[in-house]
Design goal:
Blueprint lengths: L24 H18 L18 H58 L9 H5 L1 H9 L9 H11 L1 H10 L1 H18 L15 H16 L1 H4 L7 H20 L3 H4 L4 H7 L9 H17 L10 H11 L1 H21 L4 H32 L1
Helix pairs in contact: 1-2, 1-14, 1-15, 2-5, 2-8, 2-15, 6-7, 6-8, 7-8, 10-13, 14-16, 15-16
């Protein structure tokens, strides 16, 4: 942000700063851990997934990543609005959308090159059609209708950043009504099957019309935290209900993967709950994430000492460089899958690839931080 610009007098609601002084490192830590979990979950048949949320409930790291992105957008573009007005917000959202769009196209090309060189995974990565019909497929990718596996979230963020300026305008003037409209859109998606056009099969791994709810919820949460959050959200009753729901989802999720537990779950209930619709953000997934958020708010204060540990510092660095680290994670997923197929898929190799991938992400984030800090020190 530009310190030399005078902050305008606020006529409507005022965007908050984070509580206390300085940056809230919990935000970066959560996003960094989510990036690690996304990488581990994307590698097929990987023992590392037992360290992520996916096997222990209805939601996974994708919900965390989407919600935190809404939080960070409210903070970043909110500061731009305070310092530069709406012109600054619009210019920054357009610039960030362009950055994500370019990253998406480059990642698409990198994935297809990697698959071509390896001579495998064309079908699993949804790049077969790009290899067979590069011209038409790249044209579809340019308008976000075609996406290789694991790149959908970038296309979603292009759209969400493009629309964030009007969203921020609405949140400042009618935050609860804006969140309500987002919830209504989410309900209509589940009622009528609305989605954004996609090619060639019309499927989005993350339907933007459904997943926008978590993004808007994160932004809404930060617009005016003290005035907008009802007391019951942080009450002990809500905490107890959240814990009970997390225990219920834990038993159900484990029953899907552990045969002895499967016999304990009524088959009618199992058929009702499985499979959960991730593409349209199944309501059970949404409730599971909200329960996790309530529990995290109780257990992880802003001054939590764990944030100073080496592993959490690595997560914070990854969270501060989320776009390049996400792209790197996608490429590491491809590379790890190829190693498991061509060399060994044993337990030791799975552990080695999981640890090496996270280490590579931390090392890259550390390098990016050092590159961005040095020019500031010279200036």
């Amino acid at each position: 942000m530009h310190d030399r610009i005078t902050i305008p007098k606020l006529a409507v609601g005022e965007l908050p700063e984070l509580k206390g002084h300085g940056r809230d490192l919990r935000i970066d830590a959560c996003r960094g851990i989510a990036l690690w979990c996304i990488f581990l979950d994307h590698v097929p048949n990987n023992i590392g997934t037992w360290l992520t949320l996916r096997n222990y409930g209805f939601s996974d790291a994708a919900e965390v990543f989407m919600f935190i992105s809404g939080v960070t957008c409210a903070l970043a573009y909110g500061r731009a609005w305070r310092c530069e007005g709406w012109t600054g917000v619009i210019s920054r959202t357009l610039r960030r959308s362009w950055d994500i769009y370019v990253a998406f196209l480059l990642l698409t090309l990198a994935c297809v090159i990697l698959v071509h060189l390896a001579g495998s995974l064309a079908d699993e990565s949804n790049t077969r059609i790009l290899l067979d019909h590069p011209g038409a497929t790249l044209a579809r990718a340019a308008i976000l209708q075609y996406r290789p596996v694991n790149t959908d979230v970038l296309a979603v963020f292009v759209l969400l950043h493009l629309l964030f300026a009007p969203l921020l305008w609405l949140l400042l003037r009618a935050p609860n009504a804006t969140l309500g409209a987002s919830l209504v859109l989410y309900a209509l998606v589940h009622s009528f099957g609305w989605t954004v056009p996609a090619w060639p099969n019309g499927h989005w791994a993350f339907n933007p019309l459904a997943w926008q709810l978590l993004f808007v919820l994160g932004a809404w949460w930060m617009i005016d935290e003290d005035k907008k959050v009802p007391p019951w959200v942080t009450s002990r009753t809500t905490l107890i209900l959240a814990v009970l729901y997390l225990l219920f989802s834990l038993v159900i999720a484990l029953s899907w993967r552990i045969k002895p537990l499967e016999a304990l779950i009524p088959q009618e209930l199992a058929r009702l709950l499985y499979p959960l619709d991730k593409s349209n953000l199944d309501p059970l997934r949404l409730l599971h994430f909200l329960a996790i958020a309530v529990l995290a708010a109780w257990l992880v204060p802003r001054n939590w000492r764990g944030l100073t540990t080496p592993i959490m510092r690595g997560a914070i660095r990854c969270g501060q460089n989320s776009l390049p680290i996400y792209c790197l994670g996608v490429l590491l997923t491809f590379a790890s899958h190829m190693v498991l197929l061509d060399i060994s898929d044993g337990l030791a190799m799975q552990i080695a690839l999981s640890l090496a991938g996270i280490a590579a992400m931390i090392a890259t984030a550390t390098l990016l931080n050092s590159i961005s800090i040095k020019p500031r020190q010279r200036s």
